[in-house]
Amino acid sequence: MKTGYKLALATASIALGFGVIQAKPAEAATLYIYAAASLTDTLPQVEALYKQSNPDVTFVNTFGASGTLANQILMGTNPNPVDIFFSVSQAPLDNLQAANKLIPETRKNVLNNTLAVIAPINSTISISSVQDLLQLRQVAIGNPAFVPAGGFAQQLFTNSGISQQIQPKLVFGSDVRDVLNKVSSDTNDSIDAGIVYTTDALTLPNKVKIVYTPPINLYSPIVYGSAVLRQTQNIDAATDFNSFLASSQASPVFQASGFSTIPEPMTTGGSIAVGIVGLMMKRKVTAKTKAKAKAAVD
Q1: pLDDT at 44
Q2: Same fold, 22-112+222-265 and 115-212
Q3: Distances (CA, A) of 189 to 119, 137, 214
């Protein structure tokens, strides 16, 4: 192998390293994370996986409605500087970015989810369309003013033509987990169904069941995004873990909980590496072709 080609491969390897391998935090850090309530069960599992290679990094999580958490950051009422915001729906992240609270280049889309209509495990109701919800006594959804799941539910009602009729039947929850608890409660005697994310419905298989899965074209795509906040005091650790959330290592954990993951885009380093290898291979093939042609002529 010629020296120039060896150098190109070495350069490509370095570039791939910068593009794919996570840079590990050099020092111990405590990361404060604000995250959507629907991540309550899964995010700690991802953090535990990360800690296997970063034992000196600890996490303090605050879960809640994404809109509520974003407002706390905007108003500065969070007791500790928040390092990472992991939101469902783009609006809370858009609001923070507009207020210059995010480090824009760290913002990325990580997950997708879907809506599910749930009922108590012993319920006998039958739902075959969104319109069937009008036959129920009460339906629980997140408060659409600050709970993205509630906003998606309202889109579902509007696009199904029942927005006005269903409003008197709605019971609002403070976040998607509150809706889940209202439907699953042993003392519930009036809420026939609720609308939550599919991942939340799967967390209480002994309490609730999915009775209907609405068509995904009746509401906007449910996208979870994350970003590092400017107020972070642990920029290296926060940036590294934020990247880890969208990595191939973390994907199986999210998928096991029912999320679908958004493929990690090729990084600049990875693109450079592929370009270098491709260029050198092309030159090598071209050189061989010319040599064969010359030999044929000779």
Answers
A1: 98
A2: yes
A3: 12, 10, 24
Q: What is the 3-state secondary structure (H, E, C) of 189-227?
A: CCEEEEEEEHHHHCCCCCCEEEEECCCHHHCCCEEEEEE
Q: What angle do CA 60, 64, 66 make, to 5 degrees?
A: 110
Q: What is the DSSP letter of 102?
A: B
Level-2 CATH architecture, domain 115-212: 3-Layer(aba) Sandwich (3.40)
CB 15 within 8 A of CB 268: no
* Dist. CA 72–CA 86, nearest whole Å: 14
Dihedral sign (CA 176, 70, 158, 134)? positive
Task: Name the CATH topology of 22-112+222-265.
Answer: D-Maltodextrin-Binding Protein; domain 2 (3.40.190)
Contact status, residue 74 vs residue 81, Cβ threshold 8 Å:
no
Output b/e per residue, 163-179; b: 16+ Cβ within 10 A: eeebeebbbebbbbbbb
Tell me the C-alpha distance between 150 and 246, whole Å.
25
Tokens 């120039």: give the residue: 4
List strands edge to edge, sheet with 170-173. 170-173, 138-142, 191-197, 115-120, 208-212
Confidence of residue 58 (pLDDT cuts 50, 70, 90): very high
Q: What is the DSSP string of 265-282?
A: PPPHHHHHHHHHHHHHHH
Residues 6+ apart with CB under 8 A from 186: none
Query: pLDDT exceeding 70 applies to what percent of the chain?
Result: 80
Q: What is the DSSP letter of 129?
A: S
Query: For the chain, what are the domain ranges?
Result: 22-112+222-265, 115-212
pLDDT band of residue 292 (cuts 50, 70, 90) is very low
Do 40 and 63 contact (CB within 8 A), yes or no? yes
